[in-house]
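Pasting two entries for a bug report.
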Amino acid sequence: MGYLERGEGRRVYFEDHQGPGRPFLLIHGWAMSGRAWDTTLAALRRRGHRVATFDQRGCGLSDKDFADTSVAASIGDAVALVEHLGLFGVIVNGWSLGGAVATGAAHALGTRCGGLILTCGASPRFTCSDDFPHGATTDEIGALIGSMAADRASFFKGVSQAVCARPVGQAVEDWLWSMFMQAGPAADDSLLDLAKVDQRAMLSGLGAPVLSIIGGADTFVPAEIGEAAADMARDGTAVRFEGCGHAPFLEDFPGYMDAISAFADRLDREARA
């Protein structure tokens, strides 16, 4: 583990778990932390992969008082971490808001990125527009943030209970809640910023293969967004987990690992060809 200096006298927390295999960069969702990936991270390490994670600005063990907690800032942090660690052929995997960060990082990394995984990713857009009829409205996102003002603890408790559509147990819900409660108020701004992000041109121009993981019962990022991502990518594949909500890596862990491992194996085969 370590800290990456990112200006403003502030630091971003990261972990770099060594392994001989193709590296992964795991990017967590809004107001979560890298701990959300613990089960996935352990499984990837057992398969021999090198795995890096980081806590986005305002979240987890990263500094809470960054002036800039935009999606673009997190993209910059992800790219800086990949360069700092000297990773090549990295698979960038982003969950939820982290999907937008992952798409931006994959685009900026160019040939250093071997593949992009969007795990219920909020990319290419999280909000609807005249020519993109999927997702929430910007007003709805603003109202959501406003609803936290009176009681953040209860708000995040409710979100923790709604993440998964399949039963995952009280321990998992409490674990999600504990991560939410680590996030500082500045993290709220990243969700407001996400409402303005449009990555359609970026995603359609991406050279790396894209795997879009979709939760069929996801109430946070509609399945149509994940399907649109796979459709507009040059080399896009969608894997849909019926009955799963916003976290297939928790709700159907064996199936999720099969999907991302098959993707990594494909990239390795193509690299050897």
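Entry 2 (this is the one that rendered wrong in the viewer):
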Amino acid sequence: MPMANFPMQNLTDITGLAGVASALAASTLLFPWIKRLTRLHKGMATAAVFVAALIPFGGLPLAAYVRGASGDLSITTLVLLWCALLGPWAGCAAADIKHRLALWVLIVLAALTLYPMALGIGASDPYRLGYGNWQFVITLLLVALVAWFRKYYLVALCIALAALAWAVGWYESGNLWDYLLDPFVSIYALAAILIQVVNSLRGRLHKGQS
């Protein structure tokens, strides 16, 4: 069971708002004109959006309005967002495609297992495992350990940070799944895999025609 003796409410609000602000900042990297900027100017643009999202107007910052609709983002989403934001400096976004693909596949498999069954499709509800099932926690930690030794550091980092945040009761939710996964990162991972498959098929088709 996660520890509940820590006064985490204010930290939850802070990280919740910062998570949404990070998502808004990272989304600016999708614009073509942003991609053409230098590394320094990219950093300045994303930092400006991040700060602007946290500036109150009408009583609340933009990040708070978005958070009201989206809820808190999972730890996995936050890790991927900051990999994108720090990519030009830390190199995380430029990691080997096999490593990113491993994380995307795990996310999609988890989402396909969790969400349909949580909605009543099937006889079991894996969401219940997130409320401190020790076998589930140990399995996750073993997956993180294997990923670390296999040098899939992004997978290991997402699982380890999610488990740590859950253990101290960082979010309002007491379910480990909410730290690991959210609909946004699930959709992103599925789209990324589909894009990768399409690009691979196009590459093979181009080679076949040449």
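Dev reply: Rendering is fixed now. As a check, the viewer should reflect this: The radius of gyration is 19 Å.
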